[in-house]
Specification:
The protein has 274 residues and is α/β, with parallel strands linked by helices. It is built from ten helices and 15 strands. Helix 2 crosses helix 3, helix 5 crosses helix 6 and helix 6 runs parallel beside helix 7. The N and C termini lie far apart (53 Å).
């Protein structure tokens, strides 16, 4: 292949990603768009999928980046349920705890609930949580790293190294999607690895997930290609129905239904993951 042919191939593949960002497109449509054979389109899609740029579907493909929305886009969704999740989670935090907070809109609500708890140390990689805690009484430790958009989290080698020097008493993780067997659905492999480290390093780990996140696909049913496996006994706080929560109980999760309108009962159990 000449340099000109390689350049044309790169240009075609980049244009494919742009087109796929508008929705699911068939192989035949792509072949007609670029005036190439079906086998060429399939090779291009296989390469893009291997690079994590797209997700293959039956007869076509979709740009998985198109379904990852920003923190600001998601902040207004399920507001009442997320507030109930945050109150329920806050009731699990004990005086003197070192609390690890992940990024995400629901975890940010929890940060707001913990603002007045001067007896805590909160460790976080989430910019939304930091905004909530910036002028609070609580002690705050920021995990350094690279800013990842659009979910406004810090991750990378520095974040991972800092986490491995910690043993938080309790960790709270946010999700885009959740499956009882596979764990947390993630749009990025580095993000998936970080969530696994968070759950593993804490004495107890809880996932906060409103009802739209259960089933592994995330809001709107669009799944990401990466997964963060959770340790046995990880906790789940959710406002989902009994049938959805039973699937997690059957797989060994410690499930706590969100209490709407007030905190969870005092003395709620905390699952141990280490």
């Amino acid at each position: 292949m000449t340099s000109g042919e390689r350049s044309a191939t790169r240009h075609r593949r980049e244009r494919m990603v742009e087109l796929l960002g508008t929705g699911d497109i068939s192989v035949h449509d792509l072949a007609a768009e670029f005036d190439v054979s079906l086998s060429t389109v399939r090779r291009d899609l296989a390469t893009l999928a291997a690079l994590g740029r797209i997700t293959r579907t039956y007869g076509g493909a979709v740009d998985h980046r198109a379904v990852e929305r920003s923190w600001h886009d998601k902040e207004g969704e399920q507001r009442g349920e997320k507030a109930a999740l945050a109150r329920t989670a806050a009731a699990l935090v004990r005086p003197g705890d070192v609390v690890l907070l992940d990024a995400g809109t629901t975890v940010a609500r929890l940060a707001h609930e913990l603002r007045e708890r001067a007896d805590l140390t909160i460790v976080t990689n989430g910019l939304s949580a930091l905004v909530e805690l910036a002028d609070a009484e609580v002690e705050v430790v920021v995990l350094g790293g690279r800013l990842r958009r659009p979910n406004e989290s810090l991750l990378g080698t520095r974040t991972d190294q800092a986490l491995r020097r910690l043993t938080p008493d309790i960790a709270f993780l946010g999700v885009d999607g959740l499956d009882p067997r596979r764990g947390i659905n993630c749009p990025d492999p580095e993000q998936a690895a970080l969530k696994e480290t968070m759950a593993e390093c804490a004495r107890a780990a809880w996932v906060l997930a409103d009802h739209s996140k259960l089933g592994g696909g995330g809001s709107g049913g669009a799944g990401f290609p990466y997964w963060a496996a959770m340790p046995a006994g990880t906790g789940l706080i959710s406002g989902a129905g009994e049938r959805e929560l039973a699937a997690f109980t059957d797989e060994g999760w410690s499930v706590c239904a969100a209490v709407d309108g007030g905190p969870a009962p005092a003395g709620s159990a905390r699952p141990h993951t280490s």
